């Protein structure tokens, strides 16, 4: 049985179509990243899964159980962490988590142990008896993680979970999520694609309410993104002169490579940022780098740095959603 | 008891505990208690001191001779006057954001995502508001009763407990109207306004003789005759019944609204 199934989900919001027949399936135990620009429909999708918003048509099943808007019977085994979670501020963290456990139907005898466990995991054990209203933003986010993990849900949904965290908090959260791999299914949305790359078994690109591409980060990177050369110069004027020369050299090399390999990859344009130029290439690195260096040196343009940049999800994002 | 009923009861008790802790720690209960303690003292004191106050005013001595000696009925009349005005609107102001605040702050999101049925939120909010209001009324009533017995041991109002019943019955209805206003509205002010509009509409209806007997608002003027023993509680039975039915209707409507609301 799939951990989550979404079939032909359609949603209009304020007269605008937000989801266009979205289909998505998550296997038990996998970490799935949902990527997309603002307004792509990520949060709407998550809210519909949680029964917080209604779909115009289509269906959502959590572990085979249908989700209905306003009725949260299917949500007992779901943990949810929003970007800025809100709480009852006059409760202590321990009281709040105990209330969450009780609402989720956890046996009374098990709640105390679970609260101890999750406050320990998120590093709030010493602050568990303090009122939430005195918590910092980071502590509130950690409390949000604790309530989401309470009762070891089968499906954990995280909407921009690291947006309010400092770098250490973000690192700790990602490590925590990594540790959950295999034990629960995780649906994660974030704009920080390096986090996705590090964590996710599969990534889905949502654009204008449609899932336009999905696969493992490695598969997507090899299918879409091209490796690039990043070349630095002493000044912006040198970089400006170097850019057309290097681009032309790489185009020649690419044509040669395409003839040899009988394939021609699509190539996004080259660009300059200050004294640095950035160019996509295809074929073997040595061949491309050698050709560019030969042209640049013959034009008396000597780089001060020369780097091979591996493709990543940011590049895939730009190509898929761009 | 089936598992779902047991879980619903458990969830309601959990939410009531959340509400109680919030009311206590936010000092909402303390403010309510302080106001109602003052209102409790105000009735008997106003009755006792009114002649002295009148006498101290210029030309007041003659006026004071014209009005009869205050008795326990004056004390109770003052109590019911303040209870049907400040005693209702003060809690309404304090409690008006009970649903709308939780919706607008997003505090319900985590709990609903954990499986909290939305109608349970309405039930818990209503019970919590009703208990807070009833405790406040009872506190003021106890103080007024004690001081009235102390200052005016005349036995003119032999049925104080019976006389409290219509006010409490109106509270059942008014708190439900307040919950409905709070479920309908996005802000505290709008919630309060909705409850006030409901009461004003009922007051307008009270001018129609045929409707008066069934109108919940008529309960607010029903206490003094009951206190003196001039009337029987059964005479107010239709208004009691309508209040309870209207309260149930308000709560059902509130649950439907919250169930369809985007959190």
Automatic annotation (TrEMBL), chain A:
Tagged with keyword Transport: yes
GO molecular function: ATP binding; ATP hydrolysis activity
PROSITE patterns: ABC_TRANSPORTER_2
Keyword match Flavoprotein: no
UniProt-listed InterPro entries: AAA+_ATPase (IPR003593), ABC_transporter-like_ATP-bd (IPR003439), P-loop_NTPase (IPR027417)
Domain ABC transporter: 4-233
Keywords: ATP-binding, Nucleotide-binding, Transport
SMART domains per record: AAA
UniProt record similarity statement: Belongs to the ABC transporter superfamily.
Protein name as it appears in the record: ABC transporter ATP-binding protein
Biological source species: Bifidobacterium xylocopae
UniProtKB/TrEMBL annotation, chain B:
Hydrolase found in the keyword field: no
One GO cellular component term: plasma membrane
GO molecular function: ABC-type transporter activity
Transmembrane stretches, start-end: 29-47, 88-112, 133-152, 164-183, 190-208, 236-258
UniProt keyword list: Membrane, Transmembrane, Transmembrane helix
Tagged with keyword Membrane: yes
Listed Pfam families: ABC2_membrane_2
Protein name in the entry: ABC transporter permease
Organism of provenance: Bifidobacterium xylocopae
Biological classification of the source: Bacteria, Bacillati, Actinomycetota, Actinomycetes, Bifidobacteriales
């Amino acid at each position: 049985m799939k951990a989550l199934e979404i079939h032909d989900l359609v949603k209009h919001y304020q007269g605008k179509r937000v989801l266009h027949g979205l289909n998505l399936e998550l296997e038990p135990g996998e970490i799935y990243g949902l990527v997309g620009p603002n307004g792509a429909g990520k949060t709407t999708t998550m809210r519909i899964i949680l029964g917080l918003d209604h779909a115009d048509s289509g269906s959502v099943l959590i572990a085979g159980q249908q989700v209905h808007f306003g009725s949260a019977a299917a949500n007992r085994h779901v943990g949810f962490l929003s970007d800025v979670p809100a709480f009852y501020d006059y409760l202590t963290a321990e009281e709040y988590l105990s209330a969450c456990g009780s609402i989720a139907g956890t046996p009374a005898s098990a709640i105390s142990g679970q609260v101890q466990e999750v406050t320990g995991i998120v590093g709030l054990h010493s602050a568990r008896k303090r009122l939430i209203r005195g918590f910092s933003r980071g502590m509130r986010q950690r409390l949000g993680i604790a309530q989401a993990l309470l009762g070891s849900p089968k499906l954990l949904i995280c909407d921009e979970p690291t947006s309010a965290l400092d770098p250490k908090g973000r690192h700790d959260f990602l490590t925590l999520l990594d540790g959950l791999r295999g034990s629960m299914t995780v649906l994660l949305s974030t704009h920080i694609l390096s986090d996705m790359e590090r964590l996710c078994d599969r990534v889905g690109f949502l654009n204008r309410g449609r899932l336009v591409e999905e696969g493992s980060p490695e598969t997507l990177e090899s299918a879409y993104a091209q490796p690039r050369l990043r070349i630095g110069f002493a000044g912006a004027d040198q970089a400006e002169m170097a850019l057309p020369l290097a681009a032309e050299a790489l185009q020649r090399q690419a044509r040669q490579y395409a003839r040899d390999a009988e394939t021609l990859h699509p190539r996004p344009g080259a660009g300059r940022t200050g004294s640095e130029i950035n160019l996509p290439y295809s074929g073997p690195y040595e061949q491309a780098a050698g050709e560019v260096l030969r042209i640049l040196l013959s034009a008396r343009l000597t780089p001060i740095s020369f780097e091979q940049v591996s493709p990543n999800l940011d590049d895939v994002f730009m190509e898929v959603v761009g | 008891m089936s598992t779902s009923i047991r879980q619903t009861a458990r969830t309601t008790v959990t939410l009531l505990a959340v509400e109680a802790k919030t009311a206590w720690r936010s000092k909402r209960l303390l403010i309510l208690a302080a106001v109602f303690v003052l209102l409790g003292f105000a009735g008997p004191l106003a009755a006792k001191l009114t002649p002295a106050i009148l006498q101290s005013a210029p030309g007041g001595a003659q006026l004071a001779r014209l009005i009869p000696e205050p008795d326990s009925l004056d004390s109770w009349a003052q109590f019911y006057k303040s209870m049907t005005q400040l005693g209702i609107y003060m809690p309404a102001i304090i409690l008006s954001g009970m649903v709308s605040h939780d919706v607008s702050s997003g505090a319900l999101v985590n709990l609903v995502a954990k499986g909290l049925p939305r109608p349970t939120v309405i039930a818990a909010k209503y019970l919590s508001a009703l208990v807070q209001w009833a405790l406040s009324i009872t506190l003021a009533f106890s103080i007024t009763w004690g001081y009235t017995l102390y200052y005016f041991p005349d036995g003119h109002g032999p049925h104080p407990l019976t006389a409290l019943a219509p006010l409490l019955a109106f509270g059942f209805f008014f708190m439900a109207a307040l919950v409905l206003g709070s479920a309908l509205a996005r802000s505290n002010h709008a919630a309060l306004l909705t409850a006030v509009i409901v009461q004003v509409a009922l007051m307008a209806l009270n001018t129609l003789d045929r409707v008066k007997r069934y109108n919940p608002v008529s309960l607010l003027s029903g206490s003094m005759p009951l206190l003196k023993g001039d009337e029987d509680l059964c005479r107010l039975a239709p208004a009691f019944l309508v209040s309870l039915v209207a309260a149930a209707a308000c709560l059902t409507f509130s649950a439907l609204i919250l169930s369809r609301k985007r959190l």
